[in-house]
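User: quick one, sequence for these tokens?
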């Protein structure tokens, strides 16, 4: 039966090594649990945003303005939290860059509102392309270690395609409204929900509970 090695000279006891190895093995399930919660939260926000856009936002320019600024601002906050929970901003450059891009976009949207909805839709078009590429990069980085990433990769690719149509529509004679952004947010909600469900299935098949008391907090 192995015994603990003396810690003199800075050596690590066998029992501590075993505990460390256990933590390493638990890291992927812990990361999957975090993404499960994260994707459900992002899907819920997008659904609520779309509902608000088609109801109160559609008939109230001030509320529409708040919604249009809030959407990229939320994306910046969500990516920041995701990066922090997944090892830090320095270890997740696509998300870190996405935070910067989304903050700049929220500011640009606030400025563009003074120039009309065509300018706002143009800003959203540029943002959809950049954030889509960064989301695609994040999905590819997580592909081998975590589940549900094919939906994120597809979402990122489709976002870049949506960017082309939004930017094109920004030059249309008729002024767009907040509802022109709603389909983009709706597809985002769909893909986040798909990824969350896929992770739920993966975790259940592996015997990991959603509220497992053995969950390990990520740094």
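Assistant:
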């Amino acid at each position: 039966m192995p015994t603990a090695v003396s810690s003199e000279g800075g050596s690590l006891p066998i029992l501590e090594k075993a505990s460390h190895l256990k933590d390493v093995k638990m890291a992927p399930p812990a990361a999957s649990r975090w993404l499960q919660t994260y994707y459900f939260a992002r899907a819920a926000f997008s659904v609520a945003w779309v509902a608000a856009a088609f109801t109160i936002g559609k008939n109230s320019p001030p509320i529409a303005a708040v919604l249009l600024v809030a959407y990229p601002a939320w994306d910046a906050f969500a990516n920041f939290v995701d990066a922090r929970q997944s090892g830090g901003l320095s270890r997740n450059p696509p998300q870190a860059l996405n935070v910067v891009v989304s903050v700049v976009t929220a500011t640009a949207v606030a400025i563009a509102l003074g120039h009309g909805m065509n300018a706002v839709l143009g800003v959203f078009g540029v943002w959809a392309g950049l954030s889509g590429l960064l989301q695609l990069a994040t999905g590819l980085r997580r592909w081998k270690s975590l589940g549900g990433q094919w939906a994120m990769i597809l979402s990122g690719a489709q976002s870049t395609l949506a960017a082309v149509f939004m930017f094109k529509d920004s030059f249309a004679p008729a002024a767009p409204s907040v509802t022109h952004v709603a389909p983009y947010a709706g597809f985002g909600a769909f893909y986040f929900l798909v990824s969350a469900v896929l992770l739920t299935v993966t975790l259940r098949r592996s015997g990991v509970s959603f509220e497992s008391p053995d969950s390990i907090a990520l740094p």
